[in-house]
Specification:
By secondary structure, this protein is of the alpha+beta class. 27% of the residues lie in helices and 19% in strands. It is built from 4 helices and 6 strands, in the order αββαββααββ. The chain has helices spanning 8-19, 58-68, 102-113, 117-124; strands spanning 42-47, 52-57, 79-81, 86-88, 142-147, 150-155. A two-stranded antiparallel ribbon has the order 1-2. A two-stranded antiparallel ribbon has the order 3-4. It starts with 7 loop residues before the first helix and ends with a strand. Bound molecules: zinc ion.
Length: 158
């Protein structure tokens, strides 16, 4: 470890920074619900040779880009049922093995009630008992992406 080769003052500074909360205590995550983006996406790079970690909330940056280029953005209020190859407009009830991630639950409620995610988060933050529980042997959380002309199922749990 390079910490052992640091001079005492640098070591003191690093430890002070750690305890002062200068360094993040946790990494951003694509389900951390720390922004209102529908699809939270995080870029993360860390390199020991540079001693630097870069985290980017790609979703928030993209949201700003969407505002600048609305002609290149299309949002459809439906999802593709990959089996039937049909559009479905109603949010599907949770059927995952694990309990429904809060971030997805808030967004589903927002969609069902026609409200903002922020509004829902405030109302449901202390009503976790209502959050759908997991079902053993539940279905994988489906996400279909168009790849080379075909719809391909992606399991978000992996
Ligand atoms: Zn975001």
């Amino acid at each position: 470890m390079t910490v052992e080769t640091l001079d005492p003052q640098t070591k003191t500074d690093v430890l002070a920074a750690l305890f002062a909360g200068t360094f993040p205590g946790e990494f951003w995550d694509c389900q951390d619900d720390k922004c209102d983006c529908t699809y939270q996406r995080i870029g993360m790079w860390t390199n020991p040779y540079i001693a630097e970690t870069l985290e980017v909330r790609m979703c928030c940056i993209w949201a700003e880009l969407y505002k600048q280029f609305p002609e290149f953005v299309r949002v459809t209020p439906a999802y593709i049922d990959g089996n039937k190859k049909e559009w479905v407009t109603e949010p599907m009830p949770w059927n995952g093995e694990d309990e429904m991630p809060k971030a997805i639950w808030y967004r589903q409620l927002a969609r069902e009630q026609g409200r903002s995610v922020d509004d829902i988060r405030v109302e449901y933050a202390n009503r976790d008992e209502l959050r759908p529980k997991g079902k053993p042997n539940g279905e994988p959380l489906p996400l279909f992406i168009r790849f080379d002309g075909d719809w391909v199922a992606i399991d978000l749990r992996r």
